[in-house]
Amino acid sequence: MKAGWRWFGPTDPVSLQEIRQAGVTDVVTSLYHRKPGDVWPLREIKACAEKVRKAGMTWSVVESVPVHEDIKKRTGGYLRYIENYKRNLRSLAACGVKVVCYNFMPVHDWARTDLRVVLPDGSITLGYDQYEVCAFEMFVLKRPGLEADYDTATRARAEKVWKRASARDKKRITSALLLGLPGTTEDATPEGLRHELAAYAGLNARRLKQNLYAFLNEITPVLDETGIDMAIHPDDPPFPIFGLPRILSSAKDIRDMVRACPSVHAGVTLCTGSLGADLRNDAVKIFREFHDRIHFCHFRNLLHAEPGVFRESDSHLTGNTDMPALMLELVKEERRRGREIVMRPDHGRMLDIDKGRTCYYGYSYGGRLIGLSELRGLELGIKFGLK
Asked: Which helix H or strand E contains 306, and what residues bound it?
């Protein structure tokens, strides 16, 4: 595998030199100051690629070229934004960036309810609790119609959770669920979130899937022309929240996309953390079934207290994902292709060595450094065993 690392650009507290010292060969980054739908100036793409090259690495994956909400809804200026997207793909390909990790999740790219789960050794990780999400929707967001998404038992438990919660816990849950995306500094507000959700009223999972397939098939000629691989990121978490539809949460969802979008360039980012949030998903089986459509990998692990309640694992190798079996599939697929696939350690604990850094949650240096080392060691052991 190619050792990848997500870098948030010049404002990232982790420098390119530190990233290279971690053993990274392939940087995963983007033009984070550009808004969804913008045309990316070629000079800015070239400058970013050159900065990474001078640091001794390659910018090979863009994470991401955000998909404008109008494209997801197929409303407003979606045709213009698709043309802008095509221009960006051509410009990225001209600079050697041939993998695009993106998602098609409405409004929010991810969700957590606890950004500071303190482990016994003092390190900090991320957590998610579906009952806290439900409570937030009931008592902060006050979302109409949530009864259709949460059964009576879940709502009753969520109400108890909120009543028992201290003011500090309520603030923790609210702040976490309104957090801005990685690479940004803009957090949402309950009022703003309600407004964004209203724009998706009436758009169900079936229609959103069709909109995704239409988008992919419209850009396929550019993918064929440039050789760019689109690697869609699974829904995070892989079940509905805020009343928004989920369309890439399981093997069936990927199967539907593959059937509707015949180009091999329309592929997947295998994110073990996102898929692993649903205990019904088996990342190893998913890799085996869609091996030729996997263009990029995010490897991390989760520990579940119960379905819908989990935290990031202490180690990238231990948790509900069988990482040795998954790494074996990755090595086999690379041998079949005759080339390596970029994998980045996804998330990592906040350790004492990162105190003083203002790192985005999950993206500290030390935790990812350990994760990458674990995964590289696992890969080496598997390759040795296959000799």
From this structure: strand 302-306
- Per residue in 108-156, pLDDT (tens digit) is 788 899 999 999 999 999 999 999 999 999 999 999 889 989 999 999 9
- Please pick, among 271, 282, 354, 360, the residue that the annotation labels catalytic: 271
- Angstrom distance (rounded) from CA 305 to CA 113: 14
Catalytic (active site) residue 195: no
Q: Is 346 a catalytic residue?
A: yes
d(CA 205, CA 19): 39
Catalytic residue, chosen from 68, 108, 298, 316, is 298
Closest by alpha carbon to 115, among 128, 103, 106? 128
Of 114, 236, 346, 354, the catalytic one is 346
- For the question of residue 363 being annotated catalytic, the response is yes
DSSP letter string over 153-185? HHHHHHHHHHHH--HHHHHHHHHHHTPPPTT--
Question: Is 101 a known active-site residue?
Answer: no
Global pTM?
Answer: 0.92
- Cα-Cα end-to-end distance for the chain: 16
CATH 3.20.20.150 residue window(s) in the chain: 2-111+204-385
Q: Which CATH architecture has domain 2-111+204-385?
A: Alpha-Beta Barrel (3.20)
